[in-house]
Amino acid sequence: MVFNLIRKLTFYQNMLEHFFSCPYCGAGISMLLDPSIFSQQYIEDCEVCCNPIDINYSVEDGMVMEFNAISIEQ
To answer: Are 72 and 25 in contact (CB under 8 A)?
Structure first.
């Protein structure tokens, strides 16, 4: 039990917190990014308006080099 808690805390300590605005409603969003993945693209819904956001980012040397959060035309 304690080992699992330590492993989870270590995982979250290595994450990068990134702030951006929803392209639909403008709400401020905080997202944890995994710096061990160089480049990633996925769809995530806004926590406020529930519209889908196309997330695309790249990380280099533990820093976010590029981040895009764009609306998906429906």
So the answer is: no
